[in-house]
Amino acid sequence: MINLEVFTDTFMVHAWISGTIVAILCTFVSYFVVVRRASFAAHALPQVGFAGGAGAVFFNINPIYGLSLFSIIGALLIGYLSDEEGNDVVTALILVATLGVGALFLGLSDKYAAGAYSLLFGQIVGVSTEQVIDTAVLGGLCVFLIIFLYRPLLLASISKEIAKSRGIPVRFLEMCFMVVLGLASAITVPIVGALLCFSLLIAPMAASTYLTSNPRKVLLLAMLFSLITIWSSLILAYFSGLPIGFLVSIIGAVFYMCSRIINFIR
């Protein structure tokens, strides 16, 4: 008999809502991450945000505020300090500096070790009503910005020279996208965790690109994969007690490997 509490418990309802928002958001953001080859930044920003989340936990305030602040500042610094060809060195230096700050907050007190653990690996029981509202508001803002900037951002991602020749402010668009990526990271971390947030941002989109080259179909497949990944991870985490971030990464890897095999066979 199916245990319906997985769908009706208050904390699980919060997790379902937040997880669905995160899956949809990651689909839109990851499309441009793949097109722009910004995977390292997508990997770094959740961990940059972790330092802010650890500070927020230490000061006993909502972690989403610290996550958002550090993720946005980190995204702006990466976008501003990188040259037009990108600069992984800048991203790496910002990453290690903020991880050091996060280690400082963790070293000041071990009282909030459980909160820090949930930020690193994700925890479905840690999603409160306030966090659901914050996730919905910030997620809606990110999706609106992606839709609003879609055409010029896509052109600038494919060819900066053509975009510049048409008078598109490429540098401004890049900064806007980095802010959206930072916010998306901040929203995703409380659900999946800082260490494995990258898997949800990359794996579904990477898997879909091996199955079709049509941009619309790529987006639809990536959204389907993201939703299946987060929903199945929530169910498995509820019954097994395993960290949801671990489950998301494994299921995402399975989707990716299966898509590679299908692409190879055909």
From TrEMBL:
Q: Enumerate the subcellular locations listed in this protein's record, separating them with semicolons.
A: Cell membrane; Membrane
Q: Which GO terms describe its biological process?
A: response to zinc ion; transmembrane transport
Query: Entry's Pfam families?
Result: ABC-3 (PF00950)
Keywords recorded for this protein, A-Z: Membrane, Transmembrane, Transmembrane helix, Transport
Q: Which residues cross the membrane?
A: 12-33, 64-82, 89-108, 136-156, 168-187, 193-211, 218-238, 244-265
Q: How does this protein sit in the membrane?
A: Multi-pass membrane protein
Q: What GO CC terms are in its UniProt record?
A: ATP-binding cassette (ABC) transporter complex
Family according to the record: Belongs to the ABC-3 integral membrane protein family.
Q: What is this protein called?
A: Zinc/manganese transport system permease protein
Species per Swiss-Prot/TrEMBL record: Clostridium acidisoli DSM 12555
